[in-house]
Give the backbone structure.
Amino acid sequence: MAHPDPDGYDPQSVERKWQRRWEERGTNHVNLAGAAHPFFNLMMFPYPSAEGLHVGNVFAFVGADIQGRFHRLRGLDVFEPLGFDAFGIHSENFALKVGTHPAELIPRNIARFRSQLQRIGLMADWRYEVQTTDPRYYKWTQWIFLQLFRAGLAVKRRAAVNWCPACKTVLANEQVIGGFCERHPDVRVEQRMLDQWFFTITGYAQRLLDHLKTADWSHSTRTIQSNWIGRSEGAELVFETPGGKRITVFTTRPDTVFGATYLVLAPEHPFVADLTTAEQRAAVAAYRRKVAAMDLVSRKVGDKSKSGVFTGSYARNPATGQAIPIWIADYVLMEYGTGAIMAVPGHDERDFEFARQLSLPIVRVVAGPGQDAATPLAAAEPDVPEGRLVNSPGYDGLPWEEAKRRITAALTARGLGQAVVNYRLHDWCISRQRYWGPPIPIIYCDSCGTVGVPEKDLPVVLPALEDFRPDDSGVSPLARAESWYRVPCPKCGKTARRETDVSDTFLDSAWYFLRYPSADRDDVPFDPALTRKWLPVASYIGGNEHAVLHLMYSRFITMALKDLGHVPFEEPFSRFRAHGTIVKDGAKMSKSRGNVVNPDAYVERWGADTFRMYLMFLGPYQEGGDFRDAGISGIRRFLDKVWLLVGAGAQGQGGTGKAAPELVRMMHRTIQRVTEDTASLSYNTAIAAMMEYVNALREGAPTRALLEPLPVLLAPYAPHFAEECWERLRHGGSVMEARWPSFDPALALAEEVEVVVQVNGKVRGRLHLPRGTDRAAAMKAALADQTVRKFTDGKEPKKVVFVPDRLVNIVV
Ligand SMILES: [Zn+2]
Ligand SMILES: [Zn+2]
């Protein structure tokens, strides 16, 4: 290390100084009640793991902090709160692993996270911190459960669920990866039947989908969420059995009903027992046992072609009138549609494979141009372009879309069908048979049934349990806290029992943004006036890994609260932007690879500002980039250059005379670019623009006026550094009280010309340079051009021909 320059930039002391000042002066505090132009700047609150802040967290938060600071400098009152999402199975499993109670572990982790977050210089107003594990918070999580319960949106029902034998709890489908637990990649997930609390989010499917169309959200996030909701239009058709059973199937292609040659029921379908003939009983029973040991996800995505058993019974195809066999197979789920499908092997790949394996009939019912009813099917033809119906008496020759409508109408008229819309979205299972969560506020009484805990008795405090280990019974550890479990019924006073499940951690995070402005209030979940003023959230930035769980659940809870009259809006986040991910040296960061970037070490060595800017410079923020240690010194050199310029400017060496017109134009152009790029989250190009400007200033004679905008432009990116520069330019207060510089669009208009670059007389490139660029600058630009370099690299130019604003010809 070189000997430190006493006047040089020392990030550690600058950052310490300004963090102390911000704290003393309340720089980051916002007057919630008095704000004239509220701007709620939200970032996804972290789960406080024992490892401490992850570099991915820092990347996300800094990108959001830049938005917050930028909007504040543009004159808005920015509220940037933070909190901790500390309940849940991750915390609990970790606590079990290290043998420390989560109630002890979590406060420690939170303290560490908070100091790390403060260290990176976020503009957070810590007076409004929330912790989901705080009874003052989860009192209201329970309150929300009760509102939904009373409205009939929280229901208890027995359902097949994914069960991880290692976690000893239920998993959402999203937590099952290829048949294995997301937390236990070597543990196969099983299927169990349990009584569970569900929120009936499926009733909101269409609204959730409709609003997405116009939401100011990242396109990628909207797409993921739309696909997850998975709307499909089709029909329910009825296949009757000789015994009088009506088997209802859902199909998106009722036009192919004439090609339905067999039915497949879910093994759990309630008709299976009655439909199974004596000869088939043993085979059906064995198959159902096998399926019961499988998880739901691998049933959906696994090998669908070979598994299945004939029940021995038949049903009548409502279109052909023919008797077709009824099978059961694992790929049909009770949870989706009606638990039964009609199989059309001619036009469905899965049905085709299944039919071929089991020698069931395959019939063509749709033919494209050049095909007819007799054209053989070598494989399923699911989407026949310009398909028309064949082998479908009464409908032959009709385009399939029209046939779909007509056949649905005809079967509806006969009481054997109806048009329906189906969704892939499932109801949200809220129950967790675990310890570390808010107890679900329900009491079971033998006389009164299921009773909600009266609001005055909230919170239902999670009892301190020494042994909170889950067991294999499927019953929550809370059942072992006998004195807590037995409770007088709120209605009749007789001894009753508490619900022992805790709620899903995604419920904690589905409403935290509503709580922030009212975090200091114990009498209400959210103050009506503050809620009206600050919500919906103006800007939300987070990862797309939360597109289908957190973001959808938050939207659902907000809609439900709107319907119940608790909030005046339906959508919680006016704008959502998904950030990208960063990798290290081209590879995904992971503990096993040993390439995890520890933010502390970098902040320690380089300072928070350099680290912040480097993360933002890695690539487009919404795509991410590759973290390479070699790159970070470039940002530090840039800040050193600014430091020197500001130092000279402060001492009056910057010149107070008239600024060169070229530099003035560039200043306006830079302000414009940084303004627009920061607004659109193109942080890397905003930084690049500042770098170009600083290089130009160093080569020219910067006046004070040319330097003034720099600290303000830098403030969102390198806030401590910007404060110090602002002060060195003899401004009082905080740079955050400054005004974002404005630009003159006419001046900012780049007056550029195209300059042709030749190497040995051949055109090798074209440069866009400001009019009037001199010989030296034009040469420098020409030699920096990638293509030109291929032809000149390593060789000294023998001769250069320069025609201003037109041509650089290099002879090598
Ligand atoms: Zn697990
Ligand atoms: Zn009772």
The pocket of zinc ion (ligand 2) is lined by residues 445, 447-448, 489, 491-492, 494, 496 (CB under 6 Å).
